[in-house]
Amino acid sequence: MIRVLLADDQHLVRQAMAALLSFEPDIEVVAEVERGDLVVAAVAEHRPDVVLLDIEMPGRDGLSVAADLDVKVIILTTFGRPGYLRRAMDAGVSGFVVKDARAEELAAAIRDVCAGGRVVDRRLAAASRTTGACPLTARERAALRAAAGGGTIADVAARLFLSPGTVRNYLSAAIRKTGARNRAEAARIAETNGWL
Amino acid sequence: MIRVLLADDQHLVRQAMAALLSFEPDIEVVAEVERGDLVVAAVAEHRPDVVLLDIEMPGRDGLSVAADLDVKVIILTTFGRPGYLRRAMDAGVSGFVVKDARAEELAAAIRDVCAGGRVVDRRLAAASRTTGACPLTARERAALRAAAGGGTIADVAARLFLSPGTVRNYLSAAIRKTGARNRAEAARIAETNGWL
DNA sequence: GGGCGAACCTGACGAATGTCACACGCGGGG
DNA sequence: CCCCGCGTGTGACATTCGTCAGGTTCGCCC
């Protein structure tokens, strides 16, 4: 029996996914978690064989959680952003499945991963090869993320404890590197690539 | 037996939701659709009692689909945006459930709606009362939506066949009405309220 | 018909933004 | 050791953006 822990912030999706997996005779959902910051404790308590992790959760980011777990992890997310896949691989996850997959694919991925394999969504793997790594430095990312919400330069500078001129330089660099024509577009491009 | 049609763009979520509803003895999922523009034909073919509609789908928006259906509709969406609820009500839907609800709530909503009732998520109804209606005119909305992607004023003007000055005026009005300090923030505010 | 608001447009002005050149300190790799 | 890239900062400049005041044309309602 493969013991699975489910982490997803939407209750209905979590229950539904559990219902779906209950049809698999060799898979058992032993726990459900709705916040990223509760996953580590739940894993310690329930000792699952595989953790299904959503990325966007309250409390803590699924990708950073994955880096702290030493059980096998499958990222199960809505958004097939190339950057997500890359970061997930860096975090040492064993599988990456998008929520548009078939139920059989998910079950197969769980079995494969449990047996020591690695499973990655095909289309995403292809997209990841073409998109390449994030060209932004850590500070540029931070500045772009802070600016994405719609704040002004002064806001970003205040939040990052930087001089406004520096923020402008970072954003300018981000705009150039993403090939965008202004902050908003740069933020959108970085967002869809999973660079933020 | 209550006949249900499921419309959601994510295959796994759709299958999982069907699995969840299969545990309810009086509910039967008779069809699944993955695109908004296929819902009307599927309803004509399968004659469900209730349609579960996601909002954000490829092909066609769930809210506009709802307006064309004369069966009972429950909107089932991730995003509890007040504006979505308002537009859903205008479209004549019978229920509005967020994906963070419990499975029992969803089943209860299906039964209530099938019996002629109306079901609306409590927290969302409260939020909807405080937020109020969308203050933007149709053109302002269009301009803001076109600008949200990150394009420049000239881009928006070209896409809407308007003069750049007019676009600036619309965006300025949108910024004023949303209480934002620039386009990006206005777009974000309108987005979270479901006004776009 | 008169008033009103929305859709369109123009022109002008100040403020914010994007770009560039340049400067300094720091750490890592050749 | 010395260079290079990164983080940090400054100042100047052109462009874009946000605002305002004004104008014309509709259609709708009283």
Automatic annotation (TrEMBL), chains A, B:
SUPFAM superfamilies: C-terminal effector domain of the bipartite response regulators, CheY-like. This is Response regulator. GO terms for molecular function: DNA binding. GO terms for biological process: phosphorelay signal transduction system; regulation of DNA-templated transcription. Pfam families: GerE, Response_reg. It comes from the Bacteria.
